[in-house]
Write a structure and sequence with these properties.
eight-stranded antiparallel β-barrel, 8 strands, Porin, mainly beta, 2 helices
Length: about 160
């Protein structure tokens, strides 16, 4: 076997092993649309939002996802604990549970001056497609806000993440 073939085989095996490897940290963003199920307080129930995300992957294939976002009416911070399960390469199924806290922007506070902050529980589930160094996800987040309001809504999200 020639040295050129051996070197080419080694480079190819490193590339393949990296594409099947799980990433450790991912930086990205989500584009969201929320749909109110029980949210009479939202002035615009189908409001879009933009969120930044940092996902830390643990050795047991679970993750912590730190999400910060804003929209026309609010800003919020969410912490999610997720469990990923590989369906087939490169697709993972994920499920998560977390909480959020945030604040209403001035336009909303003008309608409800006694409500400035909010908080509640989040869930999430979806599919994540990872081909190093990029991950794309499609998911749904049921959100229940019970502090500073009584709202239940779905967030439909598409995300893209750069993986390290």
């Amino acid at each position: 076997m020639s040295m050129k073939k051996l070197l080419l085989g080694l480079v190819f095996s490193v590339i393949i092993s990296q594409s099947f490897a799980q990433y450790k940290v991912g930086f990205g963003f989500f584009l969201n649309t929320r749909t109110a199920l029980s949210s009479p307080e939202f002035p615009d129930p189908d409001l879009n939002s933009f969120e930044f995300s940092v996902k830390a992957v643990l050795p047991d294939y679970s993750c912590y996802d730190f999400i910060g976002g804003r929209s026309k009416e609010y800003y919020n911070f969410t912490l999610m604990k997720e469990v990923h399960r590989k369906l087939f390469y490169p697709v993972d199924l994920y499920l998560g549970l977390g909480f959020h806290v945030g604040g209403w922007r001035k336009t909303y506070i003008a309608y409800n001056p006694e409500k400035k902050i909010f908080g509640g529980l989040d869930g999430d589930f979806g599919l994540q497609f990872t081909v190093m160094p990029v991950s794309v996800s499609v998911g749904w987040r049921p959100v229940w806000t019970f502090l500073g309001g009584d709202q239940f809504y779905w967030i439909k999200q598409i995300g893209i993440r750069y993986c390290l």
